[in-house]
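Today's session is about reading a structure prediction critically. Students often jump straight to the picture, but the first step is always the sequence itself: look for stretches that repeat, for charged clusters, for runs of hydrophobic residues. Only then move on to the predicted structure, which in these notes is written as discrete structure tokens rather than atom positions. Here is the chain we will use throughout the hour.
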Amino acid sequence: MKNYILISTLLLSYICNSQNDADINNYISATKSIREKWKYFKIKDTIEVKIIKHFPAIGFCGIGATASMTIVETKKGDTIRVIDLCNVLDNYKINQIIRIFPEEKPKLKFSLPFEFKKNEETGQMESISKNYDSTILKTTYGSLEK
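Below is the predicted structure for this chain, in token form.
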């Protein structure tokens, strides 16, 4: 546990010191405005889906909570986002068929995985999951089959 805290602290320090504050603030602001447009719905029963892309939670739940974000295709052909609290697993494969179990919206605040990199052409910070953030609006809470 001590190693995890040390590694997390070092990683956070590196990220904070290696990025321009304005870039980070611009990214956070843009991501927040996109996520406010997501349309949340609740699944009633377990559903079978095909994995398109999986972003594991950025850390284990403890003092703070994190969640994974998975883009999936349902049997009906809908593409949706599934938010799974505390799921740090990264063993999901593209086109893998799994089940999603319904979950309630968490009562606590949590962080979603966001990764960004600098666009070499524009010099701007961009979300790696940007295309999914702005085009996949249907969002639900659920537990991914482990």
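Discussion point for the tutorial: The helical segments are 2-18, 21-35, 130-135.
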